[in-house]
Specification:
alpha+beta, DNA polymerase, domain 1, five-stranded mixed sheet, about 35% helix
């Protein structure tokens, strides 16, 4: 199978790669580009562990072909921190102990980032709805919701 040449922007950087026509964006990110934050939890778009933002839209990267990223903007969890300074969501996840095994955490962080970009002052119900596509087997959801609420308050004041 011939490779597909792709030029895209990932976390603000111009990136070029070759991928197979049937290769998922998740596999490209992890295996070709070394961006291992997005995880494959289910491979069917049901768990949210592989969530990324593609052109300002939250998507499961296991359902997007690598070739479909041509000319588009991709945001992954690796792009959230600025050097050694964590994004407020990352900081609040740590402070609220809103993570355990870590498989779902990058997806939750990206989903929360997308939610707060669209709704900087969400209610608890809106947070739960905005994160509903992400599954966690370890923590339950209360600590995650509290971390997002706290981060929203910090981000409003920034």
């Amino acid at each position: 199978m011939a490779g597909v040449a792709v030029s895209t922007t990932i976390n603000g950087d111009s990136v070029e790669y070759l991928c197979q026509p049937d290769e998922t964006l998740l596999d490209v990110l992890r295996d070709r580009l070394g961006l291992t934050g997005a995880k494959e939890g289910c491979g069917t778009g049901d768990c949210g562990a592989c969530s990324i933002i593609l052109d300002d839209r939250l998507v499961c990267s296991c359902l997007v072909l690598g070739a479909e990223a041509e000319g588009r903007r991709v945001e992954t969890v690796e792009g959230m921190a600025h050097g050694d300074r964590l994004h407020p969501l990352q900081q609040k996840f740590l402070e609220h102990a809103a993570l355990q095994c870590g498989i779902c955490t990058p997806g939750f962080l990206i989903a929360a980032k997308d939610l707060l970009a669209k709704n900087p002052d969400p209610t608890e119900e809106e947070i739960r709805f905005g994160l509903a596509g992400n599954l966690c087997r370890c923590t339950g959801y209360d600590k995650i919701v509290r971390a997002v609420q706290d981060a929203a308050n910090v981000m409003k004041g920034a």
